[in-house]
Amino acid sequence: MRKKLYVAVVVGLFVFSCFPATAKKLTLRYALWDQNQRPAMEASIAEFMKNNPDIDVKVELYPWADYWTKLTTGLATGTAPDVFWGHLAWFPSMVTRGQLLDLQPYIDRDKVDLSPYYPALVEAWKYQGDSYGIPKDWDTIALFINKEMIAKAGLVYPADLKWNPIDGGSFLRYIQKLTLDNTGRNALDPNFDPTNIVQYGFASENEPQPSWLNFVWENGGTGIINRPWGTKVVIDQPQTIAVLQFLNDLIYKYHVSPKPEARGVWPGPWSLWTGKKVAMVTNGSWMLPSARSQASFPWDVAPLPAGPAGRISVFNGLAHEIPATCKHKEEAWKLCKWMDSPASQKIVSEMGIVFPAVKDLIPTFLKAFAGKKPEHIRVFIDETANTGWWPITEKWPRMWDVMQREFDLLWLGQYKTAEEAVKKVAVELRGIMKASE
Amino acid sequence: MSRAVRKTMGNQVRLMAVAKQTQRWKEYLSGYLFITPNFIGFLVFLLGPIIAVIYFSFTNYNLSTAQWIGPENYLSMFRNTGYWNSLVKTLIFVGVNVPLQSGVALLVAVAVNQKIRYPGIFRTIFVIPWVCLPVSIGMTFSWLMQTDFGMINQLLRSLHLPGVPWLTSPKLALYSLILVNAWEYLGFHIVIYLAGLQSVPTYLYEAAMIDGATSRVRFLRITLPLLMPVIFFDIIMNTIGTFQIFDIVFVMTQGGPGAATSVYNFELYKQAFTFFRMGYACSMAVILLLIIIGVILLQFWFFRKRGSYEVG
User: Considering the entire predicted model, what is its pTM?
Assistant: First the structure.
């Protein structure tokens, strides 16, 4: 009799526990890649869940190296997260394959006001007139400088360096003074020994976004393609060839820049800068957390050197996206709309980690950032005055494959002139543009 | 015997035969049932995907659509110089790595097999690289082989020798990778040869030494012939593995400089996961399968007389 009672109680508990105690709650999956931004995103998500008690948001973080393979396979199998971080480099291939949800009908229906955002960012996330993402944040490029080396060379903060492809301008003279051989002579010294350099002034690298694309625009070039989503390859303009030749001369003619190393896990010139072998390097504001944790010396940021056509920086920004196969489109839209809204970006700005896409929140960001390194954080914000776009085309992966291969050889000194390399690349790029796939 | 008795006996025999047949049938059934889990695993994770790859190699699958395009992928593959480059680089890699690795491993195994003071220590030292993660080996060597600031070149410069552009010279990079790869898996092959050497009877060596054979003669006339089946096995394993080289290229050079180290599997990976040309990548995989089968058949033919223990 007692045994039957025990069995009945256990079965009863088991059956009872199968029914969820709370009301029906919908779970949305949210994916991102940056650990540094996770606390800010979670703070904003917490606010969202407070205002939407029937939705539960699960945050999934995949490191950058794994994020895109996970996402692309998820999109192919219909198991992608409901709201995820999008990047302009991958946006064209995803949107042309119909993998993203068109947000324009939702924006129109809910009358979402896009005027608070930087207009260039809003345009970048559009395809054939429809928005597929509302801008979340942005980044620009600047010079990361080693204050110790600059002080030792007797130089002042490089607030306004100028360069040109003919004689290098004040920029070249500045980095020549920062390049030292093993006897302490700098590159302007007639007895300078270029075979025994212990410190380089600058690191020129084959990366368009952090490096040469900025210089191309500053020299009056158009870039790689004629405009976002354009189909005309313009990389062989004389201004562009002059830039690549100048950046190469920094290595082989003026000896102020180290030769590049193999690609692969070698992080490139950035680790030479954090490793105190190079005084200055150009890179994007997304590297600020790396600089804080890896640079063991006094450092700061400075404006990009200005070229004959002025000071121009590559502009890039993330947005939240929804997969076309999302099973809970209305709820995902609610989350997406919130995460990119000015109210949410205010919460994120108050943590001072990433620049908000809402223009009026910049003062909030600066207030939260006060006292943190680097001192001249405003440099990144000032650069937004004059920016250019990451080449937006669905053929980018194949085009970059060609450019990486041939320009790597150029940077390694395997070509006699930059013109040869650029002309070869242009022919291949035009072939890729014409191909149907 | 009466008819009745014979009939009963016949019935009994028939019953026994049927019982035996049912018994045998039951044994067969239980045998098949036992291998069913393994067979299902084989179908789902091995045979199924292989058939799927062969199917997709005739489509233009790009993770969103898949239309049948017949031999288009194969034709565009053979027209692509990048494809032939990756094939050549891989053949060079296999051609240098397999003899180097297996040859050195054999010599080291013979040396370690001698009566030295602490054989265990030596065996452990040689096996350590093999148990390290390939990615961490790649990263470490990337740092060591750095042209300007890497330790290997710093050592050379301190001896007044010029630094070597290990990974930045298009001519040299592939061989640097082969070196790292050979070092990494040497232990694996040493272990195989050590095991093989255990089966060579010592009395043969003793007899040879009495007859005045030098160690070189002992190696060439006793060790090598008796070890042939092990060498055969090892070379096949080495070839199959080396044809699929990928991780060291991905970690150390990403196929560069230029296309100097763009081996077959790296090119395949690029086509599949950077360009999303899955159908094209599948056709590359099918051709690789055929190439490896071809090379193995060649090796079987080469070793046809020497590879087995049949005493003639």
Answer: 0.83
